[in-house]
Fold this sequence. Notes:
The chain is mainly alpha-helical.
Amino acid sequence: MSLLESFARRIEDAQVLDPLADYSRSLSQDKFNDSSTLDDLLGGEWLGHRVHPVAVQVPMGAWLMAVLLDLVDGEKHAAAVDALLLTGCVAAVPTAITGTHDLATTTGAATRVAIVHAGTMDVTLALFSMAWVRHRRGNRRGARRLALAGVATAGVGAYLGGHLVYRLGVGVED
């Protein structure tokens, strides 16, 4: 069993997370799932499947391209790196909203994993936001370090998101 799989399974069993999980799920249901129109929109009724996996592509793609351009030739691509970091940060907000909607549909172990996934992605957003600020202020080296930490954190969060779908079946319809 891989290190990440072991980590995800430990989260599944971490009943200490239940008060936070129950509160988060309840709050999500109140905000995003009580209105059938909002539920259909955020849940992807119009798309034929959940919106969250599609929405994730924009911030993750923007952030990864920002890091790649910065590593290749950051000075030459500084304006593009700034634009991509900001695009990822802005796009992460509606992505988080669709994920919060999906959190409301979980129970038990899936909710535990979902809140850790959400927290990990919140940290990712914070790291990339700080990277954007540092990059704009000319501290390219500090920005690069934060962005690389953001990529690593996003990788863990993405793994947990995949675990939710492929191992726990969240959002999978029969």
